[in-house]
UniProtKB/TrEMBL annotation, chain A:
Protein's organism: candidate division WOR-1 bacterium RIFOXYC12_FULL_54_18
Chief location bin: membrane
CDD domains, alphabetized: TM_PBP2 (cd06261)
Keyword match Transmembrane: yes
Name listed for the protein in its UniProt record: Peptide ABC transporter permease
Family label: Belongs to the binding-protein-dependent transport system permease family.
Residues covered by the ABC transmembrane type-1 domain: 66-255
Membrane topology note: Multi-pass membrane protein
GO biological process, one term: transmembrane transport
Compartment(s) where it occurs, according to its Swiss-Prot or TrEMBL record: Cell membrane
Automatic annotation (TrEMBL), chain C:
Protein name per the record: ABC transmembrane type-1 domain-containing protein
GO biological process: transmembrane transport
SUPFAM superfamilies: MetI-like
Transmembrane segments: 99-119, 131-155, 161-183, 223-249, 269-294
UniProtKB/TrEMBL annotation, chain D:
Membrane topology qualifier: Peripheral membrane protein
Gene3D superfamilies, sorted: P-loop containing nucleotide triphosphate hydrolases
Record lineage: Bacteria, Bacillati, Saganbacteria
Bilayer-crossing regions: none
Domain ABC transporter intervals: 4-250
Entry similarity comment: Belongs to the ABC transporter superfamily.
Database matches in SMART domains: AAA (SM00382)
Protein name: ABC transporter domain-containing protein
Record keywords: ATP-binding, Cell inner membrane, Cell membrane, Membrane, Nucleotide-binding, Translocase, Transport
Source species, domain of life: Bacteria
A GO CC term attached to the entry: plasma membrane
Pfam families associated with the record: ABC_tran
Length: 271, 499, 303, 257
């Protein structure tokens, strides 16, 4: 009951952030890139969240940053889900050597410290927002693959799949119409956690100078740029730091909510 | 634990390095960080004083022949390697021949090859070395500062892999003691140093790659010396126990245009962009004013500096007019900057806004250093970039042949394809002339020509800002050579160093 | 059991081959090469070409890989371009520091995670549970580098309690907070699930004290998913290690690795990727073995 | 020998409060097998758990008395309660697949209550555990095996052995055969009858299966929506049900059988 409240809270926050991101050009009081020789100034009526070291309005940058951070998170997760679901579904459905080779590929990817892979691929592709999404997606699909495979191995045994096969459904139809919808719960949970993870990964990439590139603002690179100013201009780091935290928390809450609704064991009542 | 030890041990200078020492062999090392440590361990034939003038070190004196091709160095006779062996001319010849050996991975080799011919080094006797140049070459003497390595330890060994590179033995004021990979290098005083025993008991170089962490360590009294970011300058100046020094360095940062690209072929376009560049805003926003707007491919502290060059003071109206004159209605281009360099990234973002005001649309592309160089240095014509923000660290000699001579394209560092017959001729002349005053005039003309052509927009001359804890004394006068020109004179206040 | 371990060990071989090929390709296809370090107007580009040839980089990639593979099979991973040291030596100097950090963080994490997870589950929705729920969510939601710098500002600059660099405490705390959060949630979740199992009620019906019910009956079962998660979180530990090592100037392997990537120091990159892959695989294997030890079902199935 | 008076248990769930057991009163006589009959959701399992105060949150025992040997179980301090659990009243659960801890040997699980309640050394407890296994017709040599090595019926025997280990006076069996095949059901029922005599037990047998009640129980209590609707000798209730609800149940059984 309490958790579901948290999940609703999380959903509400995400909805608000999404709205702010979409309407950023309307809401933002300034252009996010407009610099001013004044440099960093604390929050005031002109600049509610203050300005950064180049005199740019932190509120406007946060709003535009929401677009970037949320879409990096969302697209990266979609990529990871597509890859992971496909790999897991194929592996779990066909089994045998198909399963074996896909799962070995998953093992290879898992055995890599993904930060190295991300860095190397980023170096290869040069950092920009699309590559950031792509690279994070490409290095985070393995968990989903294992999960979907596990679900499929379980579902494959169930009667309705047998029945579908008996009436002559094709493989693709069985996978997508009969099996996948039944595995969607865990996938949704993985998606919310994955999106949270992607937003954090983007900020870690920013630390390495390989995240979303300037002048585009993402919460990750705002936070990174601010770290040198923690003492002189704390608002520069507090705002994006809080935004990241609240977003990630909201996503976790949503994930937990979905998880608890799905798990009947948590909701036992009298016999 | 390591830190507690420092407080116990008196007279140790706790220095810091903002990266990792890679190799302690002056023949092989290429990075400033390794060089900083090598400076304490090794000596060259010559060295530089605070004013960057050449002064004797291992060589007591030298003479050049009349034709300027034969140089004779008379070595000091009181120098010993840290292992007790005497230093001789054999060591000098060995060092330079090692650099010239193609099997040795030294990228300094080209410093000692002139017009495709190597300089010949010869030991005339135990304490005399002769260098024979194919042609007279003005920058020769400053290149004799290379740290000399011992023949008796390296002769017959594969220099690239010698264990010496990790446990170096030199002639300098400090003796190598310990190197913990990625953490610190410690050196201890050489009581027999030929310029006088150092006053420090030793130096511990702590490797701290992150600028913020370095600053925090200085504030927390864990190190004695650290670079100060400009935005912390005022705060650190007020901080008790720390003194902040600022001084100019031989470096300039620029926005270079690919002149092979038709967008930048017209001089008026480049001039327009120069007028559209508010260098003062750049310097104020990025450095809080602790850097100076640049105007020429040199630095104010170079002896060949010439302030009398076209300056293109900020004038957006003039910029718009020039663009119109050039018939440019819409200009759009991409600036490359290297990833990890916040100052240049910010500069690109600021330039983007400044150029927007004159109707020029700029995209910024941040690339990893290696990837960026791959584009800029690829030996092909035309190159695949439009504009790039980079910096040149200048040698002590003003020679800029490799940057501006038209022969240095497409292979070479004239990657913007600058081509000016007059500059070519002056560059050739500048290398061959040995008289300093003559050369000064030649380079003044070169700077004027280049500044007028604006193949680069010269952005700023950085300053070095260094914070030193009060307990450190004996620093040299702040200058481009740093604060530790005479390491043997540096001391820790109130420390008892056993003689 | 022995067959199970043997089988797993055999699987490592193709895994390492795959990893080596992938990382070789990825690093070589990235633009630029190690001589980018030497950019200096005084260096003739011809010299760079000479050095490249000295390193064998003028050969086709395929040949380079085979040469690397042949040498690697003889446990020769080449020499670092920047230090000239054998890669094994270079890594060997750094590995102990990374392991020190990772293992102590690992132990600290377990010491905190297990009791906190257990208490949170047993006292579900109590103030303790809510507090740690909040702390762990916050721990998961804070970017590591930010947390590290904040801790440094507070404990080194303001309070002067701990040295900013060169000391284990702060990097350890930062790393532990990062991994603590997720694990505590898992431990709590697993515990909650186990506590709803019939055998827990059975244990209570037998009159066992709550202590025995929780620690003997519930915890052993609830540890199973935690062990798996621990194994799976190893790659992340390496990733986190890099950021932490940089901030706290900790001379570990993560920093060496990322630096090697920026420098295109191929032999070092390959050495580190292979070594961390082996560590991760061995870590997972150990997790599986630990799982089998705790869970008799696995143990006997594989007999 | 066990008297239950006015026992009520509530569940507090999202949708509100469910009165799972609503003021139930009955007693168990020495040596009898009392059947508690009800459909799923009738509160019969909750009642079974409540007898040993094993109702978990979100459930709560809100009122009533459970008198054993003159003492109210509901008022006992935790320590004393534990001396009742397993020692005087033992339980056998519905699902033998989940009732045994998968990571402990069956021997360990049977020995636990013996060591706890009889304060004997492990060696002796092990002997007693072996004896308990023999009583439920399992080879004592398998004492060090794990639950997953047994079939369902065998596991239920282990559960019964565990319940019998401390020689309790009362056994509460909560649908111990529903998860098992019919043939194995019969074996377990026979076993229960056998051990009842051997160990001089009183049994509360909770089920939704009137057939089993008829075979096994002396008396029956019929529950519906948390309350007792009818109570009496099994054959009387079966032959002349008074309440319409009971009648319906009996009719169902007749149709089937």
């Amino acid at each position: 009951m309490r958790r579901n409240k948290a999940a609703i809270f999380g959903l509400a926050i995400m909805a608000i952030f999404l709205g702010l991101a979409i309407f950023a050009p309307v809401i933002a009081p300034y252009s996010p890139d407009e610099i001013s020789s004044a440099g960093a100034s604390p929050p005031s009526w002109q600049h509610l969240f203050g300005t950064d070291d180049l005199g740019r309005d932190v509120l406007s940058r946060s709003l535009y940053g929401a677009r970037i951070s949320l879409s990096v998170g969302a697209v990266a997760v979609v990529i990871a889900l597509l890859l992971g679901t496909l790999a897991g579904a194929v592996a779990g459905y066909y089994g045998g050597w198909v399963d074996g080779s896909i799962m070995r590929a998953v093992d290879v990817m898992f055995a890599f410290p993904s930060i190295f892979l991300i860095l190397a691929i980023q170096a290869m592709l040069t950092p920009n927002i699309y590559n950031v999404m792509f690279v994070i997606g490409l290095t985070s699909w393995m968990g989903v693959a294992r999960l979907v495979r596990g679900e499929f191995l379980r579902i494959r045994q169930l009667q309705y799949v047998e029945a579908a096969r008996a009436i002559g459904c094709g493989d693709l139809r069985i996978i997508f119409r009969h099996m996948l919808p039944n595995a969607q719960g865990p996938i949704i949970v993985a998606a919310t956690l994955g999106m949270a993870g992607a937003i954090l990964t983007e900020s870690a990439l920013s630390f390495l100078g390989m995240g979303v590139q300037p002048p585009m603002s993402s919460w990750g690179n705002m936070l990174m740029d601010s770290q040198a100013y923690m003492r002189d201009a704390p608002w520069m780091s507090i705002i994006p730091g809080l935004l990241i935290m609240v977003t990630v928390l909201s996503l976790y809450f949503i994930g937990e909510g979905v998880r608890e609704t799905l798990s009947p064991k948590e909701r036992h009542a009298g016999s | 634990m390591a830190i507690a030890m420092d407080f116990d041990q008196e007279g140790i200078l706790r220095s810091s390095l903002n990266g990792e020492v890679s190799i302690l062999n002056p023949v092989l090392s290429t990075d400033n960080i390794s060089s900083a440590v090598e400076g304490a361990i090794f000596n060259g034939l010559i060295t530089f004083n605070e004013k960057l003038e050449v002064i004797p070190e291992l060589a007591a004196s030298w003479q050049a022949s009349k034709d300027g091709k034969t140089w004779t160095f008379n070595l000091r006779r009181d120098v010993f390697w840290h292992d007790g062996r005497p230093f001789t001319s054999e060591d000098v010849v060995f060092t330079y021949n090692a650099i010239l050996n193609p099997k040795v991975n030294s990228v300094r080799r080209s410093d000692y090859i002139i017009n495709g011919q190597p300089i010949k080094f010869k030991a005339l006797d135990k304490y005399t070395v002769q260098a024979v140049l194919p042609v007279p070459f003005a920058p020769f003497l400053v290149r004799m500062g290379m740290g000399i390595v011992p023949k008796h330890l390296l002769g017959g060994k594969d220099l690239n892999t010698a264990s010496f590179n990790r446990r170096p033995v030199g002639t300098g004021p400090f003796i190598f003691k310990e190197w913990t990979s990625g953490d610190h290098v410690t050196v201890v005083r050489n009581p027999k140093y030929f310029l006088g025993a150092p006053k420090l008991a030793g130096i511990k170089y702590k490797m701290i790659a992150d600028d913020n962490s370095q600053l925090v360590a200085l504030e927390a009294d864990e190190i004695d010396e650290a670079g100060i970011p400009p935005k912390d300058y005022e705060r650190m100046k007020k901080k008790a126990g720390i003194k902040v020094y600022d001084y100019d360095v031989l470096l300039y940062i620029y926005l270079g245009f690919n002149l092979a690209n038709p967008k930048f072929a017209d001089l008026r376009v480049r001039q327009a962009l120069a007028y559209a560049t508010d260098k003062k805003q750049l310097v104020d926003l990025i450095f809080k004013g602790l850097a100076s707007p640049a105007s020429a491919p040199t630095a104010p502290i170079s002896w060949a500096y010439n302030s009398n060059v076209p300056k293109y003071e900020y004038n957006p109206e003039r910029a718009k007019k020039l663009l119109k004159e050039a018939g440019v209605n819409s200009l759009e281009f991409t600036i490359l900057v290297n990833q990890g360099n916040k100052e240049r990234e910010k500069a690109a973002v600021i330039l983007q806004q400044q150029y927007k005001k004159v109707g020029v649309n700029v995209k910024v592309r941040v690339m990893e250093w290696s990837a960026l160089l791959k584009i800029v240095n690829a030996p092909k014509d035309p190159k695949e970039f439009e504009a790039v923000i980079m910096g040149w660290s200048l040698g002590l000699d003003p020679d800029a042949y490799s940057i501006w001579h038209s022969s240095q394209y497409p292979a070479g560092f004239n990657f913007v394809k600058y081509s000016n017959k007059k500059v070519d001729r002056l560059l050739d002349q500048g290398r061959l002339t040995t008289d300093k005053n003559e050369r000064k005039k030649i380079y003044a003309k070169i700077w004027q020509e280049i500044a007028a052509d604006q193949p680069y927009i010269f952005l700023w001359y950085p300053k070095a800002l260094t914070g030193i804890r009060d307990r450190v004394g004996g620093l040299s006068k702040p200058g481009p050579a740093g604060l530790f020109v005479h390491l043997e004179k540096v001391f820790i206040r109130n420390a008892q160093v056993r003689p | 059991m022995r067959k199970f371990v043997l089988n797993r060990l055999l699987q490592i071989i193709p895994l390492l081959l795959g990893i080596s090929l992938l990382s070789f390709l990825v690093t070589r296809l990235a633009p630029g090469d190690p001589t980018a370090l030497f950019i200096d107007p005084n260096i003739d580009p011809l010299e760079l070409a000479r050095v490249r040839a000295n390193w064998g980089l003028d050969q086709p990639i395929f040949i380079q890989y085979l040469v690397w593979l042949k040498n690697a099979l003889l446990l020769d991973f080449g020499r670092s371009y920047t230090t000239g040291l054998p890669v094994i030596t270079e890594i060997g100097e750094r590995l102990p520091m990374t392991l020190l950090l990772m293992i102590s963080s690992f132990i600290l994490t377990l010491l905190i995670t297990i009791p906190v997870g257990v208490i949170s589950a047993v006292k579900k929705n109590s103030w303790f549970d809510n507090l740690f729920t909040f702390i762990s969510f916050a721990g998961m939601a804070i970017p590591t580098f930010w947390l590290g710098l904040m801790l440094m500002l507070v404990f080194s600059v303001k309070l002067h309690w701990l040295p900013a660099v060169g000391n284990l405490a702060l990097p350890l705390i930062t790393m532990t907070i990062g991994s603590l959060a997720g694990l505590t949630r898992y431990q709590r979740g697993a515990m909650l699930e186990v506590l709803n199992q019939e055998y827990i009620r059975v244990a209570r019906a037998k009159g066992l004290p709550e202590r025995v019910v929780i620690f003997k009956h519930a915890l052993r079962n609830a540890l199973l998913p935690t062990i798996t998660i621990l194994g799976l979180s190893l790659p992340d530990l390496f990733g986190g290690a890099f950021v932490i090592e940089t901030i706290f100037a900790w001379p570990g392997m993560g920093r060496l690795g990322v630096q090697a990537i920026f420098q295109r120091n191929y032999p070092t990159i390959m050495g580190i990727v292979m070594l961390s892959a082996i560590l991760i695989i061995v870590g997972n294997l150990l997790a599986d073995i630990a799982y089998a030890i705790v869970d008799p079902r696995i143990r006997y199935e594989k007999k | 020998m066990l008297e239950v008076r006015n026992l009520s248990v509530n569940y507090y769930v999202d949708e509100g409060t469910v009165n799972a057991v609503a003021g139930v009163t009955f007693n168990l006589k020495e040596g009898e097998i009392l059947g508690i009959l009800g459909e799923s959701g009738s509160g019969k399992s909750t009642l079974g758990f409540a007898l040993l105060r094993l109702v978990d949150r979100p459930g709560e025992i809100v009122s009533g008395e459970i008198i054993l040997n003159g003492l109210d179980i509901l008022l006992m301090p935790e320590r004393e309660l534990r001396r009742v659990r397993g020692a005087q009243i033992a339980m056998v659960f519905q699902d033998p697949f989940t009732a045994l801890n998968p990571v402990l040997t069956i021997g360990e699980q049977i020995m636990e209550p013996i060591v706890l309640h009889q304060g004997v050394k492990r060696g002796e407890a092990r002997a007693k555990a072996a004896e308990a296994l023999r009583a439920v017709k399992i080879d004592p040599a398998r004492i060090d095996d794990y639950p997953h090595q047994f079939s369902g019926g065998m596991r239920q025997r282990v559960v019964i052995a565990m319940a019998l280990a401390c020689r309790p006076k009362i056994l509460i069996a909560d649908e111990p055969t529903t998860a098992l095949d019919v043939t194995i059901q019969a074996e377990i029922l026979a076993l229960l009858r056998e051990i009842k005599n051997q160990f001089n037990l009183s049994i509360i047998y909770i089920t939704h299966n009137f057939g089993i009640i008829r075979q096994l129980c002396d008396r029956v209590v019929v529950m519906h929506r948390g309350a007792i609707v009818e109570e009496g000798k099994t054959h009387l209730v079966f032959d002349q049900p008074k309440e319409p609800y009971t009648k319906k149940l009996v009719d169902c059984l007749r149709e089937l059988g």
